[in-house]
Structure formats: C-alpha cells, structure tokens
Amino acid sequence: MSIVDVWMQHPTLRHSNHQMFESLRRWTGQGLLEEALPVEVTVSALEAADVELGLAAAWYGPDGPLISNEEVAGFVERSGGRLRGVAGADLANPMEGVRQLRYAIRELDFVALRIVPWLWGLPPTERLYYPLYAACVDLGVPFCTQVGHTGPLRPSETGRPIPYVDQVALDFPELVIVCGHIGYPWTTEMIAVADKHENVYIDTSAYTARRYPPELVEYLRGRGRDKVMFGTNYPMITPARALEHLDDLGLDAKTRELFLSGNARRVFGL
Predict the structure, then answer these.
(1) Which of 113, 106, 110, 148 is nearest to 133 (CA)?
(2) CA 265, CA 270: separation in Å to the nearest integer?
(3) How many other C-beta atoms lie within 10 A of the C-beta of residue 113?
(4) pTM strictly above 0.90
(5) Separation in Å, CA 42 to CA 54, 89, 127
(6) What are the two backbone dihedrals, phi and then psi, of residue 220, each rounded to the nearest 5 degrees?
(7) What confidence tens digit (pLDDT) does each residue in 16-35 have?
(8) Average pLDDT of the segment spanning 224-235
C-alpha cells in the first residue's frame, strides 16, 4: 500500500539548528548538525517505510525563510519524484506573500501553503492571513497549519482549534484547511471543528501511532475516516518510527488506505 506523508520538511541548517528547536533536540536526542542533511538521506527514510510521497514544506518566519520555496524546489528536483513542495509565504507582507504563493503553485508545481502560527506569534484569525486564504481558494490548494500545543519554545495559544480554526472555516467555507499535529491537548475540540466544517481535516504529524490520543483513534475508526491523514514531522520523527505501532490501532483495510494515502491524494489533488 502506498503512503503519503502530508507534513514533513527537508531541513536546511538554518532550520535544523535554530535555538527554538532546543526542546525537540532534547526530546529526540539529536544534537546540532554540522552539515546540511543530504536529500538522499530523506529519500532513504521515506523509502524505508514505503512512503511514496512526502509533502516537503518551506518555512517562512518573521526573520525570513528558514527553508525557502526555492530551496524546497531544489530538494524536490533531486528527490527522484519522492517529494512534492508545500509553499511558505511572508505573512508580514501579505501581497508579497500572495505573489510568492502564486509563483510556487503555478511555476514550481507546489501543492499547498503552510504557515506555522506560533512562528509568527499570530493566530490564524489575524487579518494578515486573509489575503493568503483568498489566494489558496483561488488557486485551489489547501492551507496547512499547526494545531495543539507548541513543542518548540514558543507560546501555545495560537494552536487552539477553537476559536481560531473554527472562525477561519466560517469566514472561508471554501478553504481546505489541513490541521497538523492532531491538536492535543485540545484534540476533542479539533475533532469537533473537523466534524462541523466540510473542508477541515486533521493530520497526525509529530506523533507516533502509539501516541495518538484515544479519542482520535476512535474518530479515525468511525465517522472521521475521511478526515484524518498521516504525517510525521520528519526529520523529528522518521516515517518508520511513526508507523511502528499502526497495526495496534485496529483499522480496517479501507480506513487504513484512506488514512495512509487516499485522503491525502484527494485533498491535495495528488
């Protein structure tokens, strides 16, 4: 069965060694990198878990790109078809952000936009996001965002599904919103928002299968099987490690296929 990883990144040194990820390095036992990770290492990590496609994202923050759209395009080009690009954008300059997004989708063949709210210290209801939401709808691509507490050393408030994702989905009912990192400790809220809004989805990045909250597993097994997608947050978690205890979740064959690739292919138009 083919697998799609909807939330990962091939990092640059600027990204990997940033001080805000000190907590993640502590959790994973990874030190600072001395040289950039080769694309071949990422491709091998995907291949090892039968991941056919990884959606590799750019990271744009207030101090500029930690991983630029152009760098992502280069990684995609060297991946032998194993990576597809997810755009970033400069939130502080919305019109420039819209231009960056249009270029990434139309010229670089990227499949979505991702903005990480805690990186900006701005929840998704802030007005600076709204031109980008309109552009996503116009371009027919999903908007990917982070929900739940913040692992890096930044405040967690911006990751609340209610009120933020709920309000954005009310303001832009046509916008497809993919919420990464499950939403814990507000998982029940995240499920409620996904139930309420036709175009809101959840991805499991930053969690291994054994750490999925019980309410998410129950949702995935039942009415939410069209709503939940697999993600890793690689390189923090490799696909092989993320999938290690998948069999313990008790998913039937159809649910498993939807979770691992079917929903992603439909939602991202892969």
Answers:
(1) 113
(2) 5
(3) 26
(4) yes
(5) 9, 23, 36
(6) -65, -40
(7) 765 766 766 676 777 777 77
(8) 97
